[in-house]
Amino acid sequence: MLCSKCRHPAIIYQRYSGLHLCKAHFIADFESKAKRAMRNHRWIKPKDRIAVALSGGEESSALLYFMKKILGTRRDVSLLAISIDEGIKGYRDRRIAANIAESIGVELITDSIDELFGKTIDEVVREKGDRFSCTFCKGLRDLLLNQIANDHDITKLALGLTLDDEAKNVLVHILRGDAERLFKPADTLPRVVPLIRPFLYIPAREVALYAYFNMEGFEIRRCPYSHNTLETEVHSLLNKYNWRHPSTKYALVNLGEHLVSYGVMPLTDAGICPDCGEPCHGEYQEWGMLRELHHV
Fold it and tell me: pLDDT per residue over 5-17, tens digit each?
């Protein structure tokens, strides 16, 4: 097939737009969408100190490359990366993130869940089973990222979340009846460093292709504990439905954005943990893990 814009050979077909794109027009389209998301949300401001959460996978690697490309010449904004080792055997290799950060000249801060909280995710799963593995892993990782950000005067945390991730999260919150999460973004809690998500409107397969064209050395691995979670079931269901209705994921993300714009709900169980001084929200929510972890 030929590119819909220049008649050169196409390398991708966008079912949701009906366009065939060559490599050059794909990259231009990709970066235009990411830049537009950043402008519309006003995520970047002068004197910002931005950290990319770098796992070493294709999405975070693509994000680090993109952020370096658009911010590399700005003197009023600084960029660095943070890598977190969750403690899952055979899943995370610290050297990969270090090599990626070094290859594009970005400072890397590293830490691990085990070093700060005294338990790896492998140990949590052995003691509690894998039903809540993603809940603990995401919650502790986000808590650690936020703590590192506060310790290093970081003003924004950039995440490589894609359209697929955002749509899945909205549907998960709906299925759980979690109105608070739909109406109030987590970064409005006290002491929470705001998040930016430049790939908010870009499908995961396009993010992977962008990484393939621009980065080397990233890894593609699936967490061994992800098979038994609601998030995985919703992801599979959503992909099947989206194949028949290509605009579904965009509709869900737009719904989430609209709900936040309507106003916020009071978080009845949100506050600052008296034990650690970090934000907390509920027994199994992202910011309330520490006490439960130490009673495993």
Answer: 998 999 999 999 9
